[in-house]
Every structure is written in structure tokens, then in C-alpha cells.
Design goal:
The chain is an all-beta fold. Helix content is 0%, strand content 44%. It is built from no helices and 6 strands. A hairpin with a 5-residue loop joins β2 and β3. The chain starts with a strand and ends with a strand.
């Protein structure tokens, strides 16, 4: 089963409620997100100011697999 994790540029997982900074230097609170639906998509992240591509906040979705 495919699972998704939102990570920063160091591949460190980012949790809901985290304060994140955009490439413009603006801070926001991570409220959630939607992983990519297909190859070529970057998914979205939701912050207190709206919905953005994860790259705006130097984040990305990475695919993981269930070992079970």
C-alpha cells in the first residue's frame, strides 16, 4: 500500500501544526495537505493563508510503502 509523507529539504517529516516558511520569507501554520494523485503532480499543502504547491514552502511529498 502506498503512503505519503510531507518532508522538508532535509527529508525531515513535517507535522500538521508546524510553522513553515515560504521562499518569500513569510511564515504560516501547516493545516494539512493532499499528496499527488498522479506522476507529475506535486500535491498541495494547506496553511492558514490558503492552498499552495508544497515547493512554495520548500516541502515535498514522498511516497512510502507499508511493510505489513
Amino acid at each position: 500500500m502506498q503512503n505519503w509523507q510531507l518532508v522538508d529539504t532535509n527529508n525531515t517529516p513535517v507535522s500538521i501544526g508546524a510553522t513553515i516558511t515560504s521562499f518569500r520569507g513569510e511564515t504560516a501554520t501547516l493545516k494539512g495537505g493532499k499528496p499527488p494523485h498522479h506522476e507529475g503532480s506535486t500535491g498541495r499543502v494547506w496553511v492558514d493563508g490558503g492552498e499552495y504547491f508544497p515547493g512554495v514552502f520548500n516541502l515535498k511529498w514522498v511516497s512510502t510503502t507499508d511493510e505489513a
